[in-house]
């Protein structure tokens, strides 16, 4: 279930694979976001999703641009580190941690609601939903500690089934229940909903886009990030818009807004199960209002079980996100090293998983879905705001020609390249965060969120000072290698290759080192992009050649039984790209092949190898063959 190699990501992913995996996380949120937003926005629920869709468009563009610049796991935390310093990176990571914890809690909390809506009504309300939700978290936390390998193929298949099911509900619902007149009658401006509730619904509507960090966290597995990452994010955006811009309107046609005798308004989409509504299982409630004839019963069972399965996987994805994040924060000395400590047998960050899994259970105990949704909005809006701010600042410091991909609606003012999407998105997410803070004091969301941030800053400051580390400088933790043969044991080996590489001797050497040390071999193919060509240029021939060479290298590695990662990297300076990739992977050794150039008046090696030898922070092994006569 949980993929556990933290320093070795095994696959080379194209746009379709990235899209499928990301949609599996983003698409799951419809199963709870619809009910939570409807409880506030009533008949304006479709409008809320359109407004948040604009923020999502801007946020997705910021993530695409920043991730193609720095294709490494971490999302907004990685962006903030590159744009500002380590403190702001920690601040973004700590906000991310809160969103992961809330994702775990809210996904697990809704699993029993869908099961209960089909088979056992006790699971649809307290304490049944709380106990079952906590049990889901416990089971998955244990699975993640043990480190059972997840089936990527199954996850991708379920994501595609999920998307096609949601699309089918939209099409069938359009013909059976959609009514523009009912939608118009649902709205009573300023009354149903009140303006305050409408404003409150907008931050919580960002729940619809839970999981946008997924593609960023998988970027180190992307085949050619300058093209695959923007393409994958664009596909996720289109797929999500296709559902969220249509399904809420159809659902509110089936479950319209009604007025009570006391003059208040409600929709069953936003009422709790105790009140006879479907806030806990809104998609299942919508299906129950459709007249499907003989398919009604099977349709309800299918949708309910699919929803429960997708939410179960979303809970697991949140725990995987926690494990990666806590490990990354430990590597960058942002949290005490014990939290990222690997289990001696299973090699998973078990302490961090159990600690933050327990926090997820604690915030589930009150049994308040609205509390969880708003607390998610608190962390997510802050994390998104820092992502936008990072892009704005990196545009200021990075020359335009070095951007692998530029977000849309950009323009120049004087010498500054203005990222309109990042500025508008940052304003929107920051205002949404302020709304969450100012209007959620009495229900505990703002106090809990602010206490979480204060606790994180205290831990960060105390830990850094105890280790005599600067607060703003990036400092990586040393590798915890053990055993009598430290000189020859490696965890990560980097081997750059090219179409004209010297591969026979050095490839065999790298493979033997990796096999003997049970290390991950990172095979990197750098493509040098000329200065007169943009970093995002197609370069079809070069990419095709790189893919061929990497496939050959991967096939050879499998013969040795070596776990291999293949990467295509676009760069202006190949030597610099090799050094940066080694730092990103925390490789202990770089294995290079080079032609012998030892002739009078020439350096021993070429400028690329010289650069690596002078600048690498790890060992470098260079093997040379005599140049052909």
Question: Helix and strand layout, with pairings?
Answer:
Elements: H1 15-26, H2 30-41, H3 45-69, H4 76-83, H5 86-116, H6 128-146, H7 152-176, H8 180-186, H9 195-205, H10 213-217, H11 225-244, H12 247-254, E1 257-259, E2 265-267, H13 282-288, H14 296-331, H15 350-364, H16 369-397, E3 410-413, E4 416-419, H17 420-439, H18 445-466, E5 492-496, H19 504-517, E6 520-528, H20 540-559, E7 563-571, H21 574-585, E8 589-596, H22 607-615, E9 619-626
Parallel strand pairs: 5-6, 5-8, 6-7, 8-9
Antiparallel strand pairs: 1-2, 3-4
Helix pairs in contact: 1-7, 1-11, 2-9, 3-9, 3-11, 3-16, 3-17, 4-5, 4-16, 5-6, 5-14, 5-15, 5-16, 5-18, 6-14, 6-15, 7-12, 7-14, 9-17, 13-14, 14-15, 16-17, 16-18, 17-18, 21-22
Number of domains: 2
Q: What's the CATH H-level homologous superfamily of the largest domain?
A: Amino acid/polyamine transporter I
- How far apart lie the N and C ends? 55 Å
Helix content: 55-70%
Specify the overall morphology: globular
Give an overview in words.
- It is a single chain.
- It contains 22 helices and nine strands.
- It is globular.
- It folds into two domains: 447 residues, Amino acid/polyamine transporter I, CATH 1.20.1740; 135 residues, HUPs (Rossmann fold), CATH 3.40.50.
- With 629 residues, it is an alpha/beta fold.
- The strands form three sheets. Strands 7-6-5-8-9 form a five-stranded parallel β-sheet, with helices on both faces. A two-stranded antiparallel sheet has the order 1-2.
């Amino acid at each position: 279930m949980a993929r556990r190699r933290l320093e070795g990501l095994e696959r080379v992913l194209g746009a379709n694979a990235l899209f499928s995996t990301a949609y599996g996380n983003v698409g799951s949120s419809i199963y709870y976001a619809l009910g939570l937003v409807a409880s506030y926005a009533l008949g304006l629920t479709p409008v809320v999703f359109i407004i948040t869709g604009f923020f999502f468009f801007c946020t997705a563009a910021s993530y695409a641009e920043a991730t193609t610049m720095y294709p490494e796991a971490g999302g907004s935390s990685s962006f903030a580190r590159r744009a500002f310093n380590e403190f702001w990176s920690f601040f973004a990571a700590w906000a991310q941690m809160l969103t992961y914890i809330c994702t775990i809690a809210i996904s697990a909390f809704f699993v029993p609601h869908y099961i209960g809506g089909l088979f056992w009504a006790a699971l649809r309300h307290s304490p049944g939903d709380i106990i079952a939700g906590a049990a889901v978290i416990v089971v998955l936390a244990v699975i993640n500690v043990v480190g059972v390998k997840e089936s990527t193929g199954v996850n991708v298949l379920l994501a595609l089934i999920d998307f096609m099911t949601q699309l089918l509900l939209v099409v069938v619902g359009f013909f059976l229940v959609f009514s523009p007149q009912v939608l118009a009658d649902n709205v009573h401006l300023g009354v149903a909903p009140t303006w305050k509730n409408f404003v409150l619904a907008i931050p919580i509507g960002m729940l619809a886009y839970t999981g946008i960090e997924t593609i960023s966290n998988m970027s180190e597995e992307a085949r050619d990030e300058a093209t695959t990452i923007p393409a994958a994010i664009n596909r996720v955006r289109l797929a999500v818009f296709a559902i969220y811009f249509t399904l809420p309107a159809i659902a509110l046609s089936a479950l319209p807004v009604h007025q009570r005798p006391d003059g208040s308004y409600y929709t069953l989409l936003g009422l709790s199960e105790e009140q006879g509504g479907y806030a806990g299982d809104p998609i299942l409630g919508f299906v129950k209002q459709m007249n499907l004839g003989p398919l009604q019963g099977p349709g309800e069972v299918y949708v309910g079980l699919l929803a429960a399965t997708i939410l179960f996987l979303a809970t697991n994805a949140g725990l995987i996100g926690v494990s990666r994040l806590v490990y990354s924060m430990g590597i960058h000395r942002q949290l005490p090293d014990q939290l990222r400590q690997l289990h001696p047998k299973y090699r998973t960050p078990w302490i961090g998983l159990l600690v933050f899994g327990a926090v997820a259970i604690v915030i589930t105990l009150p049994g308040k879905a609205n509390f969880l949704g708003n607390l998610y909005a608190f962390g997510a809006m802050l994390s998104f705001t820092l992502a936008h701010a990072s892009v704005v600042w990196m545009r200021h410091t990075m020359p335009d020609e070095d951007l692998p991909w530029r977000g849309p609606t950009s323009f120049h003012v004087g010498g500054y390249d203005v990222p309109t999407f990042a500025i508008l998105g940052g304003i929107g997410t920051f205002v949404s965060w302020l709304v969450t803070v100012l209007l959620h004091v009495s229900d505990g969301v703002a106090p809990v969120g602010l206490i979480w941030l204060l606790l994180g800053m205290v831990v960060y400051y105390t830990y850094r000072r105890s280790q005599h580390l600067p607060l703003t400088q990036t400092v990586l933790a040393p590798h915890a290698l053990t055993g009598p043969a430290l000189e020859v044991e490696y965890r990560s080996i980097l081997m750059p290759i090219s179409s004209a590489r010297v591969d026979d001797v050095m490839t065999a050497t790298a493979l033997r080192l990796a096999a003997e040390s049970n290390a991950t071999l990172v095979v990197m193919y750098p493509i040098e992009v000329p200065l007169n060509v943009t970093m995002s240029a197609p370069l079809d021939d070069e990419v095709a050649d790189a893919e061929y060479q990497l496939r050959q290298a991967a096939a050879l590695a499998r013969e040795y039984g070596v776990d291999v990662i293949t990467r295509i990297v676009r760069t202006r300076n190949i030597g610099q790209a090799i050094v940066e990739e080694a730092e990103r992977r925390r490789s202990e050794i770089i294995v290079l092949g080079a032609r012998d150039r030892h002739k009078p008046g020439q350096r021993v090696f070429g400028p690329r190898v010289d650069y690596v030898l002078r600048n690498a922070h790890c060992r470098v092994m260079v093997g040379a063959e005599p140049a052909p006569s």
